[in-house]
Amino acid sequence: MPSWSASRCFTRSMGSANIAAMARASTSPPWNDWGFARFIAGLFSVSDWLPTPRFSDTSDAGRYGERVATDVLRRRGYRILYHNFRDHRSEIDLVCRHGKVLVFVEVKTRSSDEWVRPSDQISRAQQERIIRAAMKWWRMLDSPPQVGLRFDAVEVLVAPGQYPITRIIPSAFDIGEKGMI
């Protein structure tokens, strides 16, 4: 029985052309599915390892806060269905699915919460506009699924040079007696 060192693959006289021909043709990872790599990448968010940048205006800070909130919600098991759904008078920042519940999320981004919590700044008028837009979303579905509805808020506190702090507030407000489904 020949030893492994006597095989043609391990002889010293192999030229570089033979070695190149034996090299693996594909540069893809040894697993067939990129799902594992995406799973690992999904565990980490840019907001986890990069401090908050400086913003030139509040709309930039708001967009950054929505990206941070999206990352946090995905890691908590929410499935993001739509960003910035607009009705003619109102907007819903995120439409999500969390289990068997359809969740409409309002994101409030602030640089500080020392005066008032960001979620406390969702006025009753704004809540009613969000509810109207949610009902419009609901009616747009061909056959609305039998799921619950919930209105969450996400507070994102951003200070330049620091890491963002997020708080998810489930059921921040409800439809109340104005149920329009």
How would you characterize the overall build of this protein?
With 181 residues, the protein is α+β, with helices and mostly antiparallel strands. The chain has a domain at 55-178: Trna Endonuclease, Chain: A, domain 1 (3-Layer(aba) Sandwich), CATH 3.40.1350.10. The chain has 5 helices and 5 strands; from the N terminus they run ααααβββαββ. The chain has helices spanning 16-22, 35-42, 46-49, 58-75, 124-140, and strands at residues 79-86, 91-98, 101-110, 148-157, 165-173. It has a 5-stranded mixed β-sheet with strand order 1-2-3-4-5. Mean pLDDT is 75; it is low at 9-24 and 177-181.
Tags for this model:
Trna Endonuclease, Chain: A, domain 1; five-stranded mixed β-sheet; 181 residues; alpha+beta; 30% helix
